[in-house]
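User: Sequence in, structure out. Go.
Assistant: Echoing your sequence, followed by the structure tokens.
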Amino acid sequence: MLPSQALLPAVVFALAALQALASNTFLAAVYEHAVILPQSTDLPVSPSHALALMNKNMDVLEGAIKEAARQGAHIIVTPEDGIYGWRFTRESIYPYLEDIPDPVVNWIPCTDPTRFGPAPVQERFSCMARNNSIYVVANIGDKKPCDSSDPSCPRDGRYQYNTDVVFDTQGKLVARYHKYNLFEAESNQFNYPKEPEAVTFETPFGKFGIFTCFDILFYEPAVVLVSKMQVDTVLFPTAWMNVLPFLTAIEFHSAWAMGMRVNVLAANTHNTSMEMTGSGIYAPAGARTYSYNMKTEDGHLLIAELDAHPRLSPAAPPAVSWNSYALSVERFSQNDHEFTGIIFEDPFTFTELTKPGGNLTVCQNNLCCHLTYNMAEKRDDEVYVLGAFDGLHVIEGQYYLQICSLLKCPSTNLSTCGQPVETAQTKFEMFSLSGTFGTSYVFPEVLYSGVQLAPGEFEVLSDGRLINRSTTSKPVLTVTLFGRWYEKDPPHTKRDST
């Protein structure tokens, strides 16, 4: 045997080890896109007119994809409604739709664009991925013909779906997801699939799952992908309208990543007139990078490194028993004065933090929330409350919530507590928030003044306490444990097809 031959197995092993090491992390990108919108019309435009608008948006997205690839990103997520916006009826969106096949067909639209009929949008995204050697995630519209043999077939003879697609580094279609939980007016444009789709695909840097916007608030498919399919990273195109104090994009999406112990790549559309901003690359331990911009109409590219297998990472947070601490302690002292305040139409039970520090408990139904705190300074011009809500939320969707929250009121008038507020002056030297949750799905949120996150400044202990690590670096808007009790949700709405 020649010496070079003897060395060959060792070299191969070393290369394999390096490859395995390299795939322990990856570079992720998301692009927040200021969508170029069509003129509002109830009448369908021509296919060429629709394609011209989509190409204008794809020109912008292609620039972001090229830049992400130049910086070494392995995958990029673009937003929901990113190539045509949302100003449509069922009829007027039709010219923007393409027939998107099941990925089992093993198709590279870039090299075989007409295999399934005209598909210029899929061809272009496929070529963006192939020409830049990057996974590309895009949100487009799918159309599927049907007839009277299908009793659910809509009257116009087709299904229309809000659809995410993924193209790999060769431009091959590797994932297609039809959105299951449609948000309000979307049902005027799209159908939802008869059954929720749990869509996953494997890469050299982990197992990925995908869902869209409103889906994140429900069990299927979002929780199923993580708890049953064991994905490492969630791809999340969204067109998210921010709602304070609990449902701003950066706040809730980062909290979901932490609560589910999974990576989330969230790409939002950017439209300040509709309160749409807030994208991020989130790890279980906190945001790796994020953007929130209500000042300009510019798009924004974010890139950050993530662990490919976050559950195996040394930085992985511990598993949490969310009610362990709260059930083990006696009810803290409470103020005599409890009052009701409204947050997003939900009636919360509040009690005021009247002292610079102390222990408080507030309860509603079966949920008791415990807070231990010390303010850096108790200001006369700011009021904070501890709030609890245990009930069915019924505005813009129906879903069961259990929420414990320390939050700032907009003014010293207690009747304003629960209304949105974006700035504060009070820092906290310490806080510890816990609750007697009946659900194991709880999402921890800390939001600072100016609608800013606090990555690395707080943690959740294994007994369910949300605590800060040191005095907060900025004044606090809210510290919240946002619980979702999926088993108490009403069934998925079975709307009549159009």
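User: And one key feature?
Assistant: The mean pLDDT is 94.
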